[in-house]
Amino acid sequence: MKKEIFEPYNISDNNFEQCVKCTICTVYCPVLEVNPEYPGPKQSGPDGERMRLKDPGFYDEALKLCLNCKRCEVACPHGVKIGDIIQMARIKHSKKKPKFRDMILANTDIVGTMASTFAPIVNPMVALKPVRRIMDSVLKIDHHRMFPKYTGLRFESWYRKYAEKKQKEFKKHVSYFHGCYVNYNFPQLGKDLIKIMNAAGYGVHLLEKEKCCGVALISNGLIKQATKQAKHNVEVFKKSIVEKNMPVISTSSTCIFTIRDEYPHLLGVKNKEIRDESELATRFLFRLVDTGKLKLVFKKNYKKRISYHTPCHMEKLGWSIYSTSLLRMIPGLDFVPLESQCCGIAGTYGFKKENYETSQEVGKPLFNQIDNSNVDFVATDCETCKWQIEMSTTCKVMHPISILAEALDVEATMKLWEV
Amino acid sequence: MKFDNIIIGGGLSGLTCGIKLAEQGKKCAIVSSGQSAIHFFSGSFDLLGKVDGEDVSNPLEGMKSLSEKHPYQRVGLENIERLTDDALHLLIRAGLSFTGQANRNHFVLTPMGIMKPTWLTLDDFTSFDHKDHFPWNKAVILNFSGFLDFHTLFIKDGLKKLEVDAQIKNISMKQFEAIRKNPSEMRSTNIAKEFDKGNAIDEFAEKVNLLSETTEVVILPAVFGLFNRNVVEKLNQKINKPLVLLPAIPPSVPGVRSQIMLRQRFQDLGGTYFMGDNVEGGTFDNNRLLDIKTNNHDDIKLEADQFILASGSFYSKGIVATHNKLYEPIFGLDIEGDSDRNNWLDEKFFNDQPYMHYGVKTDDKFRALMDGQSIENLYVAGSVLGGANPLKEGSGAGISVLTSLHTVEQILK
């Protein structure tokens, strides 16, 4: 018998009619639990969609309280794209214009360029209490929040100066979508990635001018600009993947999730040609190890106790297994599993004064887990989760790639393929 | 990605398989397309409640009159008693405390106010010895103001037939005002989350004690202890009168808690639980399933020595019916069922519906058939098997758990 493909027939563009009203999604919504102003995923998503189809007047501005964590989608037994339905409703119906503050938070590219140019002044300035008070009262950026430090030497500049030349010596090549955080705030992660990829026998290249993935633009309602950047990125990815046959890897789970799934679902930007070969570095490395094409050799004296926090978009991608599997390969590593829970920051959401309390309440169970886990540090694939956990717990947070880079015996690993 | 065993489906059947195999040292993965039907858990597992419309008092005896196509008959009645014992202990090792016997049904009070025969009952709930006797004469049924998912009048009417005088009263507390603001979110799990925080129990128990001074027993909706396991125990200590909890409309609080505990047990044993992922198909060679492809992992195939299909029945899309076709959607396995849709339904709604018996065809070792050939390493367990009408028989959980344990025994042989 030939296999039948089960494809439910939907009249809608999204698949809200697949909802059977089981309400399971509401159990796993991290916002609903702490903020009753939010109508919850079922009401905001498939239930509300029926009403909005009749009359867009039924749109409720409270939908902006959704974190877009997609945990409702992961829980849904019928595959309803609840999170997408809610985001689409916001895009279509919201009358609220983005505030000046939202534009500052969303334009990570422009702000990053300016801030890193004046990093020696900006960093101490935004760390000052009075400045944070002013940002709190004028811009409504909560004063508890510390902005991540901006770097004086952007990753791209560092790369061109110190790394680019050497990359051509390798036989195999990948492109690296570093994202805003690596470029403007934390170039070390990019350097760690290059160290590992080089040890694995791959040259690492920059894309032909990447732009911010646009996740913060989408969540702040700056859709036109997000779409423009998405189209630009897809073209740039095509040049690498289709023309040069070089897959694109990234170290940010949210960037890669946005490019793979939010571009087509929310922005209507087609990405079919590039989607399969745009992925996280940990997944790329895992595949090599899993198929026997790569063996990682680790230092014998590396001893650490760590746990792994699953960012919401990693939970949705289902990819945390790649990061944790790689980490578990390090012999001296004592791995403490954590229950997957939202940290509450959700990108720019938690920076906004009006969301601060919700954000911290959402993260509380996770913070308790971490504070009780007695680890040297927490590993996670998302930069904003890192800021949130470092602000709200006593633990330091490291990217799995940085941990691997620290534990890797580069020479021994290279020897295995050089011969 | 290589495992010893991969189970498709993360519900009661899949988790039973996963835990049992992991307990035997197998490296297992469960792929689940979302949260499971355990979220609709009433608090009891049925083994066999009715045969031909007649109540069964001893399920092990009652099974003897089931057809030879029935999963219990196919597992072999000589194995059933041992497996029921196995099931109970598997649950207990997962931290879930159940009571009940396979050779004697006990009774639980349903939210319709009716006594229903069952096999195992979670210790949140009260087991009764007799169908027509409620041990107390005066009861108070308490509900939360604004909570629409607990239908007190049905319970009161049902209890009247058992000669119980029941009063209905409501409780309001400021802790629940916030969730009450939004009537669609005043759900059992949201009430449970308030109790989980620990600051509502004392005041609640005081109110219950005040409202139950003149009665012998307190009846409450089962909305206690979602992530925090000790809430029911604490309430029992603080409430002066005996406490009878009844299931509310799903999502079920004891159900979500049970699901979490079973999953944690599986993960503690080293199991990998892939949540929110869908199996799209598999690679077959020489009547063996080599690997499966999932939506999230795509080209990184999941390999295993043996696979178990525990994908559920129609509701979970383990089997699918369109206007003219009946099929198994993951691999296209052979189906036990009528190809003529006119025979799917009995026009009398409450009759034994033929489609309820449909499922994936298997050989005598519970291995799936494809084009009439057994797939050597693809086993089938749980409600996707067919051969029974769990709704009519009161046998759903029993079939899930026992066929799973039996399948695992085939694999471990």
Brief sketch in words of this structure:
The complex is a heterodimer of chains A (419) and B (413). Chain A is an alpha/beta fold and 419 residues long.
Describe this structure as you would to a colleague.
The complex is a heterodimer of chains A (419) and B (413). Chain A has helices at 24-27, 30-34, 40-54, 71-75, 82-93, 100-106, 108-117, 119-127, 129-139, 155-167, 179-185, 187-199, 215-219, 223-243, 253-267, 272-275, 281-290, 312-317, 320-328, 356-371, 383-392, 400-407, 410-418, and strands at residues 172-177, 202-206, 248-250, 278-280, 304-308, 333-337, 377-379, 396-398. Chain A has 419 residues and is of the alpha/beta class. Chain A has 4 domains: 16-93, no CATH class; 100-139, no CATH class; 155-292, Rossmann fold, CATH 3.40.50; 304-407, Rossmann fold. In chain A, the strands form 2 sheets. A 4-stranded parallel sheet of chain A has the order 2-1-3-4, with helices on both faces. A 4-stranded parallel sheet of chain A has the order 6-5-7-8, sandwiched between helices. In chain A, helix 11 packs across helix 12, helix 12 packs across helix 22 and helix 17 (281-290) crosses helix 19 (320-328). The longest helix of chain A has 21 residues, at 223-243. In chain A, 50% of the residues are buried. Chain B is an alpha/beta fold. Chain B folds into 2 domains: 2-100 and 257-412, FAD/NAD(P)-binding domain, CATH 3.50.50.60; 126-246, Rossmann fold. In chain B, 28% of the residues lie in helices and 24% in strands. Chain B contains 12 helices and 23 strands. Chain B has helices at 12-23, 59-62, 71-75, 77-93, 152-161, 177-180, 188-196, 201-211, 231-238, 253-268, 390-393, 396-412, and strands at residues 2-8, 28-32, 44-45, 50-51, 54-55, 98-99, 106-109, 115-118, 120-122, 138-144, 165-171, 217-221, 243-246, 272-275, 279-285, 288-294, 302-309, 320-321, 326-327, 335-336, 359-360, 367-370, 373-380. In chain B, a hairpin with a 2-residue loop joins strand 15 (279-285) and strand 16. The longest helix of chain B has 17 residues, at 77-93. The interface between A and B is large, with 40 and 49 residues.
